[in-house]
Amino acid sequence: LLDPHSAWPREPSSEPQRVCGTVRLARLSRAMADGKFDVSGYYAAKPDGATREYVMQQTMFRVKDPKRPLDFYTKVLGMQLITVGDFPQWGFTVFFVGYPPEKDLGPVPAKEEDKFAYCMRVPGCIELTWNHGSEAEDADRVYNTGNSDTTGSADGEKVRGGFGHIGITVPDVYEACQRFKDMGAEMHKSPNSGGMKGLAFVKDPDGYLVEVLPLGKGFPFPTKETDCNGVSLTDGGGYADNSKK
Fold first, then answer.
1. Is the pTM of this model over 0.90?
2. Please, what's the b/e burial string for 142-166 (b: 16 or more CB within 10 A of its CB; e: otherwise)?
3. Is the dihedral of CA 58, 64, 65, 70 positive or negative?
4. SS3 of the chain
5. Residues in the chain where the model's pLDDT stays below 50
């Protein structure tokens, strides 16, 4: 619609759109009342060619002290430190860790000036962000992890966070979790505890959850009679929602 007093198109009335949107939301709410959502259209959709070379490259965690998470992610989980970005003028440093697909990209470059460009091609990295000075704070953990805890909240009340966890896959969840426990990592959920058997959650030093899943396996996952915490398949209890603890 053209406004005769303006060179710009005039916006049509939003009332019909608002009504249609309300109807769509009502239908969607009824369809999802049983906890289901139809995703067939997403499976059938063709990828947009314009995004063919996009990469899900990183998740950023703020950390109190860089040494603790770097030790955890490189020594316990076996990731590599790929590149470091130091920004003293803004008071922070970033450390990128991950599992570089060396068969596709080759090894991490030896030259510092080549490391960042290489890192930007590695899928699924973690960017550990250290805001200078946080290491001197009294609390052991200073940032909220998104899983219904009080850390970092102004009023001391639990935060209804949206973030949940990252995840890694391993050939044997039970063996991996025994390794993590032997190396002093905090197990949040051992493989046989809770309602979902054969997967686990380990906490990093800042409290962020890392899910541990079996590489290339479907559900139900492979299980063993006893896990790293001595929990048997029949004594692990039921499902627990981390967002409501």
1. no
2. bbbbbbebebeeeeeebbebeeebe
3. negative
4. CECCCCCCECCCCCHHHHHHHHHHHHHHHHHCCCCCCCCHHHHHCCCCHHHCCCCCCEEEEEECCCHHHHHHHHHHCCCEEEEEEEECCCCEEEEEEECCCHHHHCCCCCCHHHHHHHHCCCCCEEEEEEECCHHHCCCCCCCCCCCCCCCCCCCCCCCCCCCCCEEEEECCHHHHHHHHHHCCCEEEECCCCCCCCCCEEEECCCCCEEEEEECCCCCCCCCCCECCCCCECCCCCCCCCHHHC
5. 1-11
Q: Which residues are catalytic?
A: 211
Cα 6 to Cα 150: distance, rounded to the nearest angstrom: 54
